[in-house]
Amino acid sequence: MKRISLILLSALAAFAAEDSWIEVRELKSGTEIRVFKRGAKQPVTAKFDEATDENLVVAIKSEQVAIAKDQIDRIDYRPSKTGAKVTSETKSQVDPKMAPATVPHDPPGLSSSSSSTMTMGKPDFETIYRRLPTPPAK
User: Fold this and answer.
1) Count of structural domains, the chain
2) 113 and 126 part of one domain
3) How far is CA 138 from CA 19, 52, 133, 135, in A?
């Protein structure tokens, strides 16, 4: 019974990995991705071109490179941002304490402050594919 459970579990895990590879294949050409290769210290940042059953084809700078699927540990992608590219935030604060008069002979009044920030940027990377660990040898 335990052996059947292990076989079923590994079949489900393999299906999940293949399902996420299908998602990689459905990425739009030109999508910014990071590829984490086996044994590499730094990920490869590239533009997605296409994915086959055996390879991931990407554009790095001005050249096209194929990376074998079995050499890929993880793939992250930057989703396309919808809506405004610039976000803004305004904060206003009124201090309930009476502030000293700013001009001689004026009565003291409330003090207030206001700040605005504008943020421009890209969305964060999201993981789309992660290779499953290989089962231990028996």
Assistant:
1) 2
2) no
3) 27, 31, 15, 9
CB 77, CB 26: distance < 8 Å: no
pLDDT tens digit at each of 138 positions of the chain: 555 554 544 544 444 556 789 999 999 999 999 999 999 999 999 999 999 999 999 999 889 999 999 999 999 999 987 655 666 677 767 666 655 656 666 566 666 677 777 777 788 999 999 988 776 666
| Tokens standing for residue 11 | 């079949």
Q: Evaluate whether 69 touches 17 at the Cβ level (below 8 Å).
A: no
The whole-model pTM stands at 0.61
Following DSSP, what letter does each residue of 117-128 receive, concatenated? EEEE-PPPPEEE
Cα separation of 24 and 99, whole Å? 60
Are residues 37 and 95 located together in one domain of the fold? no
- The CATH number assigned to the domain holding 34 equals 2.30.30.100
